[in-house]
Structure formats: structure tokens, C-alpha cells
Amino acid sequence: MLNQLIKQAAADVAAPSRRGFLKGAGGALVLGAMLPRTGFASEAAAPKVVGPADPRPQAFIRIAADDTVTVLVKHLDKGQGIMTGLTTIVAEELDADWAQMRGAFAPADGALYANHFFGIQGTGGSTAVANSWDELRMAGAAARAMLVATAAARWSVPASSVTVEQGVVRHAASNRSARFGELAEDAAKLPVPQNVALKDAKDYKLIGNPSLHRLDHVSKTDGTAIFAMDIRRPGQVTAVMARSPRFGGTVKSVDAAAAKQVPGVLDVLTVPRGVAVVAKNTWAAMKGREALTVEWDDAKAEMRGTEEMLADYRKLADQPGNVATDTGDAAKALAGAAKVVEAEFVFPYLAHAPMEPLNATVELNPDGGCTIWAGSQFQGVEQKVVAAMLGCKPEQVAINTVWAGGSFGRRATTDADYIAEAVSIAKAYGKAPVHLVWTREDDIHGGRYRPLFLHKVKAGLDASGKLVAWRQKIVGQSFMEGTPFEAVMVKNGVDATSVEGSSDMAYAVPNLYVDLQSPKSPVTTLWWRSVGHTHTAYAKEVMIDELAAAAGKDPVAFRLEMLKDHPRLQGVLKLAAEKAGWGQPLPKGKGRGIAVHESFSSFVAHVAEVSVDEQGRVTIDRVVCAVDCGQVVNPNIVEAQISGGTGWAIGHALRDEITLTGGLVDQSNFDTYQPLRNSEMPPVEVHILPSTARPTGVGEPGVPTAAPAVANAVFAATGKRLHHLPFTRSGMV
Amino acid sequence: MAIDLTVNGTPQRVEADPDTPLLYVLRDDLGLNGAKFGCGLGQCGACTVMVDGRAVLSCVTPILLMQGRAVTTVEGLGTAEAPGPMQRAFIEEQAAQCGYCIPGMMMRAQALLQEQPDADDAAIRRALEFNLCRCGTHMRILRAIRRAADTLRHAETGVPNGRAG
Q1: How many CB contacts within 8 angstroms connect chain A with chain B?
Q2: Contact A221 B138 (CB under 8 A)
Q3: What pLDDT digit, counting tens, does each position of A680-693 carry?
Q4: What's A239's domain CATH number?
Q5: ipTM
Q6: Count of the separate structural domains present in chain A
Q7: pLDDT single digits (tens) A165-200
Q8: I want to staple B89 with a disulfide (CB 3.0 to 4.6 A). Which of A64, A490, A552, B148 is the partner?
Q9: CA neighbor of A601 nearest in space, from A128, A118, A136, A127
């Protein structure tokens, strides 16, 4: 399946269209995010090499005369630590000293820096380590061989007698040594060796080493780390935009007179996505927008509220959908089941709300192209979309990727979104580099939400308590339809990202039926940290828990019975249960819950312990997590990502939702869309299963099981099931 | 209007609309990137700086009120070459993920520890309730602040402490 998908990965993002930048597609993109469970590095056989078979040290490694080694990192680091992780892989094969290693964001160049799972340059789907693993090990090993060959020639000794350790190249017999910086210039003149031996995992010194410090910590604690928000080009102006308060609304008329009177406002421009106020500084731009009067045309806008949408979804769920999977005969098996359990699950729209609001700086170049500074996550898409807007070639769109203050999926869009907006303003203004800043209200109102989803699940047990049938109806918008990704990701009306985790569930269910309906709405939606698994894993793991209770079986034993062909899922389930003291009694008012899931080819189980008081207030006392992500590159970062993913999931499950009333978003800032606060962050113990399997990602897999483990713990404590998210919708506070 | 203030020990005169929040003066006029724009409504704490030693949300503090005040941003806590105790603690605990909330967290903690050097866990957590982190690195931030507190107390008393790094 994976190979077939990769073959289709011809990136061809079409020209911007009037309804956005999405329309039409010659080819298709593949998203590692949506790789099916049976894909790369899962329990099925993995390919030998991901990416080109030849080592490419020249693309990734720069060794300076001062002995520093800089690794060009093709992925966006938005906090997940990939700058450090990818640099570690090179340093290991190079036998470098960690202190001499540096990282830098690679330029936008699809020929050199494509994500091998996407076919274009981009970050997402927890693929960064997995798709770089081979090419960076080979690059490091090739560079090491070239340094060794240079030293050997200089010293007239056989290369086999030259060693490298902690950045020093040495010939022991003659007691000669050289630093990388002394050899690099000559080494670069050598042909790149085509066959290089890679280290055995048992010899790793840096990979898997918990004491390595991240490369970004000093700059992130003294204000010198440059985020997009910190870019200041000579003469730069700041823009904020007024966008339709309703999704799908368009500009009817603009009265810019008052806005133009605000001191510091330079211009007011109508662009495809709204009305831009261009000003000398941020405050003037914001005040200018406040003074702007725009009349919006709602003829094509979403006018419904969330409850009306849900009512529509409920009606749809009673209709036949597009079949995602149909094995055995679920209807017949349900009819003959000894016990049937049914539930309706509701998952709200959710905003990503990264701490750094969306922003980008665009400078038009005399050659007709432009230079962009942004926390760019989909450079391949952005180059093509912007090139079409400016009538230049994609390679004339230079992108300087900088540190991003979070993303959680938000900065990766199929239409270049805010970057295209910034380009449209820079083009219309024409006089100076433009820094477009979204305010937090723009962000919360701005759509690209995790879609609103409704699931109806009906499952049956036989007389012995064995799960014999599962029928699941899923209703929610597709964010793949209408994009260049559609051709690969949507088959027979089923968007793989809407059903992943359900239709391919690992539990052995002889009669499994899952169907999907993807109603349309002008409300824009997008992948959100762990994508479809954000809702499918919750429905699956809460439902399985209910079935275990109905069968009178222990939740861990019930799961293990149905995972006989999935040793890695069993492995994390058993480890989490053991570390959490599963089975040990808890006092009244407390409960323990478990959940297990595979996503992005990584395997995670969570156990949560909660207390629930008489008012229904949930306190999460403790979370234990086990993860199997293959070979670990940096255990400290794995721990950070898995515990961070846990907090992310729990924070949203407790109370977060984006709701609409009459088409208008009810929330607007962090006062009404409230992220997890530090007093609510539970202690999270992360246990990593040792493995030498190919590494997989950890940015997203910590999310799917955290909330269902908490929900199952609340059931254990109270007997109450939490089917509607956030928990406040299910009577919790 | 012209406002005279001190920023990280350096006297500054800025010309600005008196309503302008301190945050935009620091960033747009003085080119100091440490204080971050996160919400513009005093809801997230990314813009936290110290004014006369107290933690202040600079995104909702008009520059008008800053006449004669001493402002400290994260740039004033130390440098890469000579990091201050708070920076060292955050580095040692590897507390940052995306890092966008971190300067605000550090300034909130610095103000707390200057006022209450013996602040306990509950006091630290209470102070940090204002500051949001979306990456979920809260526990490491708390550890970093405890470590900084230990270091600062150690510096004051001269008593060695095994946890200080």
C-alpha cells in the first residue's frame, strides 16, 4: 500500500482559484500522516531504504574551518525537537562530538529536501525522523568516509588504519590526528562513496543518549531564537486583515475612510481573502482594523449553529454511508448477539491555537519572485501556490524557514493559507516588505478546525463475552476533498483521514462494518495533532471499555485477547498496565482507565488515574504511558513529546470546543477557548520500550489514547460514560 | 508623545501613541524579541516582562504608564555566554519545546523568586497559572523554576545544594 502511494506522489499543486487556492489537481500528494496502519514500519515488512539509495552528504552537511558541523534540517521545528533529532543522526554516523554540532533550517528545495512520504518538502504526520533516517545516516557515514580518506591520503596510510572519535580523526600508529575543520575542504573535493557501512545500533553513542542537550535551548531562553514574529526587514510594514466573520462570506463593500485616518496606517487593500490594513507598526495596524467598516455578503456563508449541524449529522448517521470497511456480516452478527452495546459520540470543532499566532513576512524580488520568512511547514506547497500567484517559477519563491511557536498541524495547509494571504497583500501594496500578523481572535475565528464529528457505534458480544460484531457510522467534514490530496486520500467517497483508526482497528472483530459521510460546509477544517485518531481512537477505546464491562471482563485482559496478532500493541498495553499498578484497588471516588492505539506506525498505551468529586469535577492524579516508536533517537525528546501530547489531549477533552451560533464562532481568545493550565497538567510517566526497529514518529502518537484513558477512569470512578466531548458536554466540570 | 523609561538597565526615550501597549514598543521600536505576542488580551502570559521587579502583562500595559519605570525583559536575565540562574535552570531541565511561552514563564518566575525567594511549589504553580503553554511542557517548567529557586537560595546562603546545576 505504501509503495503504491509513494508512486503516486507527484506533487502538483494547482494554481490559486477564486474560492481559495485549492481547486483542480493534475497529480496528487501523499501524506505520511494518513499512511494506513499497515504502512511503513508497522508490523508489516518495511522497505530497505526510504529515499534515494545514494548518500547525499552535500545536501545535508556543512563542515566549517572552525570545526563546527552544521546539519541542514529539511523539516520545520515547531517544538518537537527535530532540529536536534536529525542532527543527532548525522553526528552519530560521523562520529562527531556533540559540542561541535549545529543545526540550520534547509532552504526550500524540493529536489534536495522532499519528504519521502509526501513527494514534496513538508513536515507532518510524525514522519520527520522516519523519512530522514536512511538519508541522514548515509550522509553522515559518507562524510565520515571522505574525511577518513582525506586524512589517510595526507598521512600516506591506509584508510582502514584511520579512526574517528568525538570529532577527531586519528592514525594511532603514527600518533597523528586532525580535526574535521582541517580536513573538510579537501574532503569535499572527493567523490562521494556510493556504498557506506552504517553502524550497528549497539555501537550508538549519541542516538538513544538521554544526556544530549537540545540545540535550541540556549537561544530559546535568552530571546535570540528567531521566530517568524521576530523578522524585521528594512522598511517592513505590518498588516492585519479583516476576514468574513462567517465562513464562506465575501466582501460586499468597504469604508476605509476612518481606518486611513488612524496615525500610522499606510493603506487599506481589498485582497482575495478580505481587507488588509497596512501600517507602520503592529499597534497602528490593529487600530486601523478596528476603525474599518466592511459589509459582508453572506449569500454563500455557513449560517447554521453547531447544534443545527449536529442535528443534521444525526439524520445523516441514520442513512447509508460510503463503506470504509465491511468484513463478515455485522448486521447479522448484531442481530444474533447475546448483548448489544450502543453509543453516540460527539467530537467538537477544535482550534490548534499555537502560542505563536500565524504570521509571515514577504518581500517581493526584482526578478518577479519573492522571499518569505515563516515557520513554514509545507514549503513544497507554498512555493507552487505562491509561484502561481506571482507568475514566476517555484524556485523563484525563496523560503527562509524559522522556528515556529507550535503548529499542531495548523501551519501545514494544502493552499498555503496565511502565506498566500501575506503574498497577496505584499503584491497589492507593492512598496515594502509586508509582515502579516494574525491576532489571536483571527486564529480562533479562522477555521481550519479539527472537524466536528459524530460517531454512532453498535457492537455485540456473544454469550461467552466475545466481541463478535462492530458497526460504526461516522459523519464529519472531509478536509481532503477539493484539494490536490483528494485523488490519493479519498477513495470511493471515503476520506482515509476520517476513518483511520476505526476501519483498520487492530482488534480481532470477525464482523466489522464502518461507513462514512462527509457533509459539506464553508467552515474550513484541517488535520490537528494526530488527525483522524483524535476521534476514532476515543470512540474505539471507550466503546471497548464498555464492552469489557458488559462482558464482565477486565479491560486489559479483554483487549489482550483481541490483539493476539499485534505484539507491539500488546507490549505497550502490558507495560503501561504493569507500571501503573493495574488491578491494585483504589479508594472510593477514584478510578483507573486504560487505552491503547497505533497511530503513525507508533504504539502507545495510557493509564489514567482520576478522582471525581460530588460536583463532577475531574482531577487527573496520575498518567502512565508506554510507547514503542522503534529505535529512539533522543529519549528526552520522546518523553517531552509523549507527555506533551498527553497534556494536549487532556486539555482539549476537559472543556475545549469551538461552537457556532448562527454561523458565528462563539469563542475568540484564550478567555473563551481555554488551554490546559499548569495546575491541570498531571504528572505523566513515560516508559519507552527498547527497540531496534526502524524509528517512527512521536509528535502525534501521544495524543489518541490519553483522553479515552481518562474517560475510562471516570467510568471506573463513577459509572458514568463520557460520550460527548468535551467532558463538559457529558456533565463533568 | 515621548516616554522615558529604562529597559534592561539602558535608558530609552520612545515616541509612541500613549495607548500603545508596552509589548509593541519593546518589539517594534526597541527591537527586543524576548517578550512575545500571544493573545493581545492579557490571557496567555507570553508577553510577561518585569516592571520595577513585578511581573506585568506587557500586551495590555499602555506605554503611558511606563514613564520613569524600569523594564526587564528576558534579554536582561543574561546572555548565551553568561546565562543567568533562571536561564541555566531552563536549559538544564530542557524545559522548552516550541519555546514561545518560555520568556514569559521565565519573567513570571523571576519576579516571583525576587519577591519570595522561598516560594514553595504551590506558590510557583499559582504564579504560573497566568502563563499558558500549548506544547505541554508544564512539568519541566516547574522543575526548572524549582531548580532556579534552589540556585538563587544557594547563591544567597552559600550552602551547597545537590540539585543546583
Answers
A1: 185
A2: no
A3: 999 999 999 999 99
A4: 3.30.365.10
A5: 0.95
A6: 3
A7: 999 999 999 999 999 999 999 999 999 999 999 999
A8: B148
A9: A127
